Structure formats: C-alpha cells, structure tokens
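Sample pair:
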Amino acid sequence: MVDGIKINSANFVQQQSGTLRDVYKIGQQLGEGAFGEVRKCTHRETKDVRAVKVLKKESMDAAEKEAMLNEIRILKSLDHPNIVKIYEYFEDEKRFYIVTDLIKGGELFDEIIKRGKFDEKNASILIKAMLSCIAYCHDNNVVHRDLKPENVLLEDSKEFDQIKMIDFGTAVPYKQGSKLTEMIGTPYYIAPEVLAKKYGKECDMWSLGVITYILMSGLPPFNGQTDDEIMKAIKKGSFNFNNAAWKGVSNDCKDFITQLLTYKPENRPTA
C-alpha cells in the first residue's frame, strides 16, 4: 500500500508501445507449436535472460486469441514463486509477443516418463509446492481448471520445490459459492463434477490427486482406450492401489490421494 493505493503485479505488467526488438535481443528458438514459437531473449538494458512466446495471429481463431488474452489478464494479477511470471507483452500487425520467465528444466510429464515413478520424498516436495501455488490461486479467487504434469515446468536444477505452474489460458476468476458450467480440462485429470458441468475450485484438488497418483505409480487412476472410456471411469470414480507399483508406498500417501479423489467435491480438503 503506497499513499492509499494498493500495489500488485498487475500495476507493473503492461502492453508495451514499442517493438519487442527495441527492448530485447532475440536469441535461439526453444520450442515450436501450432500458433508460433518460443525464443530466448535478453533484456537490452538489464541483461536479464527471459523467454518470449511469439504467436501468429493468422494461426489463431477468436476463441484462441481470447484464451491468450485471458492468460495475460490472470497472470498479471498473480505473483507467486511457483507461478510463471509474465513481464510484459507486445503486439504488431501479425503477432503477439509475451515475455515470461525462462524455465529450462522441461515438463514434469517428461520427468515422470524418465523416472517411471517418484519416491515419496521427492513427490512430497513437489506436491507441497503445487499445493502452495493452488492455495494462492484459490485465495485470490482464481481456478486453474487444467492442472496436469504438462503444465508444471522444472528448473534446470530439478529442485522440486522450484517448479513453475504454467498455462493459465483456461483459468477463470471465481466467486466463492458460485458454480462454473463450462466443461473444460484434459482427460485423465478432469474432475467428475466438471463433466457434470457444475463445479467450483475443488476441481483443481481432484486434478492434484490424479497427478499424485501418477507420480507415485506411473499409472493413471482412471484409464481407458479412448477419451470416452476415460470419462466413464472418472464418472464412476472408482480406483485402487492394487498394482505392484504401490508396494512399499506408505498408507499416509494413499490416504492423501484418497482424500483428494473424494467423489463429492464438498468433502475434499482445501489446498
């Protein structure tokens, strides 16, 4: 609070009037997707190294542009060490440019594939960081709605308390007691009440339960050959710890997962 004015991150993240190249030196390509690419960039004045997401307008329809602008709006309002930071954004006739943290360690999804499964110590460190992040979002009336290992990035050090949560394109402001009705999310991680199109912030806790189950076993709790089969399994809400992968996993860990995957959202623990 300065002179009666509340200061938050949104005051500092603005659309810039110049060009990206006026402010940043553009470096190597880091990744490529349907809408454009991600490049390394260096701030000309401070020498800070960041990432810039370059999105081609012609490749995006109206809904995709709105999701991108929604992500900027949401990230402008958040400031947490485990949420990717947006610094500024630019626009010209053909492209949008979004400047964020540079995160070099890859997706949690790839780390799970590499390891097969996590031990409890590393999993607990990672899940604690995610819980901190989700609690912060929920306290600030934001629901992520698409939590999954692909949306959790690791730093180069692979320190699991240094994760960054990304992809807030489908996140929404949320008013306590209200219900969201848009069915959105990713098969495997989507909560049963989202499939019923009547849900709240508790859907993020279900997704975290699925992520924890996968971390500990390398397997999804609700599986199927097609998306429809996965959805049917989620609607039933039945899972178990019978696979050999669960041998040696503590009862505390299984209890934690069971509480998060409680079918009735009102009975799930908060972040």
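The chain has two domains: 10-100, 108-267.
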